[in-house]
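Moderator note: this is an archived Q&A kept for reference. The question asked for a predicted structure of one protein chain; the sequence and the answer are reproduced below.
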Amino acid sequence: MRGTRTSTGAALAVGALAVAGLAFAPAAFAVAPGAATINADCGSFGGGEATLTATQNGTAATITVNSSAITAPIALSEDSISSTLTLVKAGGGTTAFTGTENPAMAAGDAVTVGPLAGTVASGDSLEAFGGSLQMTVFGITITCTATEPQSPGPFVFD
């Protein structure tokens, strides 16, 4: 009987510690929506639909851009594209997401850049329309702009 009480007491203590740990765990941060689409115009380099996927961890955020409508003009090695995605803040100003992350791509492959890193504040509402994506490949800068607001709406950071 004494062994059962000790085991029960230990189980209750472990359970209480687990609940207390959850109560003091940091809150998860989220961005909504997690993904949005835009129609992009990249001048002589093409254009079409692109998907922006956002993540957030505190004030750090990342956005990955993927488009099967915009293709690599030549084979590109991994991490060879220097990119800056500039998004427009609802209250005025802009936020830049930068990086040199990209997968290796063969000529004609869909273009993917990111995750591009940026800093956000709680409540930031960021939109691609009015901003731009600049990608520099072998010293050539390609600028893409959204031709209309992103869908389903701007990214709102927690």
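Archived answer notes: Confidence is low (pLDDT under 50) at residues 4-27.
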